[in-house]
Amino acid sequence: MKLIHCADLHLDSPMESNLSAQQARERKGEILATFAKTVRLAAASEVCAILIAGDLFDSDHITARTEKYVLDLIASHPTLSFFYLAGNHDRGNRLRELEEKPENLYLFGDGWTSYELGEVTVTGSEKPDPDTLRLDEKKTNILLLHGQERAGRGAEKADVIRFAKYKGKHIDYMALGHLHEYRTATIDARCTACYAGCLEGRGFDECGKKGYVLLETDPRGGLTHQFVPVAKRTLHTVTCDVTGFTSQLDLENRLLASVREIPESDLVKVILAGECPAQTLVDIPHLTQVLSEGLYFVKIIDESKLLIHPEEYAHDISLKGEFVRRVMASDLKDAEKERVIACGFRALTGEEIGF
Fold it and tell me: What's the pTM value of the predicted model, to 2 decimals?
């Protein structure tokens, strides 16, 4: 028996903090299309069920059109069972209140709910209490939960999962959602906990390969699993050392080399690091345009430092010299003086800066 475990699609998420309005619309459509692709792959591969471990939707951003598309997609694949546990972003979504739902869609409430799927039992709860969990040790047991081990970064107290509380509970596989990267943990000799991550990365805090987890029952008992990449686009963060660049062309070539292995369909954040001579100019808009010709989306963050020796300007009769002397005579801390001088030099050379 095969099953797919996925989570954290955040359908209809705005995604406008980095992308243009057109790209944000494209990415919304692509994430929905990747979910549909996953469903079709499941049907073609004789998968019997898809486990959705929370945050299928993105809070109140969900449109009626997207909701209907998801319901139609589920209903059009009657050979697949869909087990959907609402997460912190889509808790209280409209699916539970619908008068008519696809017969192959199974939901969970606040208490423990179990569904039998042949030799497998799928159990879940939106407000799990490990002390009240009772599972048949002779069954292959999958537990569906949404949350993380500690509160913080979007996890409320109700979404905290204490792994230690689930030891010895006869669980074979804990299908988790909330963290947006694939990772596993051993709960006890029988149980593996697994975050499937998200199907598509939405921001640069979600870099790397994204996809789902394919589960298969083992004839000897229990389950085996493997991560399957499926995303249309991957997000990357790369660091480019610009120390000692000699010209604008040299700088361009360094940046182009840093992204050479990245597919054109992907999104990249490039961080400039190292030290630059005081007289140099890092033209971010121009560099972004150069890289964007070969990539879907580029964002450049300049974390390089200007190599400035204030003592060289002690007697310099120029606007820069006067500026350096005034900053050095101020009450600012040394680190603040260095930053102010660097920003001032870039402003004086015509570069746009941001604080």
Answer: 0.86
